[in-house]
Write a structure and sequence with these properties.
Distance between the termini: 17 Å
Largest sheet: 2 strands, antiparallel
Shape: elongated
Strand content: 5-15%
Number of strands: 2
Radius of gyration: 17 Å
Number of domains: 2
């Protein structure tokens, strides 16, 4: 499964917003910290705002803030809104309308197992986990 640049940037943006809480942070500041185009971050931030992850506050002291606690936003939730489709193969979502081989598909169980394995990780990692320092050890936060 390939994670798009938009999703990677969305996770980086959310982690910077969470890291700054309770203060707000601008896309300009995140752009500088992360080395990401501000124009691209503005599009990503707008989508995250439409999806209920962040809120934009205008004016002096404005910027973005999380609408939910960082420990309640999972990577799966971000993947689901940023990736189309999120699943490793569209057959997992709708096996009956997959293709002409759907009734005798030998691959469906593989796609389901991959989806379950990915979700086991992404369901358990939150934006809060992303801002914790990584010790480089196996099992340490992402």
């Amino acid at each position: 499964m390939k994670i798009s640049t938009n999703t990677r940037y969305a996770l980086r943006f959310l982690s910077r917003v969470a890291e700054r809480a309770p203060e707000r942070i601008t896309t300009s500041a995140v752009s500088e910290l992360e080395g990401i185009s501000e124009k691209m971050l503005e599009r990503i931030a707008a989508k995250l705002a439409r999806e209920g992850f962040v809120r934009s506050v205008k004016g002096m002291g404005g910027g973005f803030e999380l609408l939910r606690p960082a420990d309640e936003i999972t990577v799966t939730q971000v993947l689901t809104v940023m990736e189309t489709p999120y699943l490793p193969h569209h057959c997992v979502e709708d096996p009956e309308h997959c293709c002409k081989m759907s009734e005798n598909c030998h691959m469906l169980s593989l796609w389901v197992r991959i989806d379950e394995a990915v979700r086991a990780v992404t369901d358990s990692v939150t934006v809060q986990d992303l801002i914790r320092p990584c010790s480089g050890k196996e099992g340490a936060p992402v």
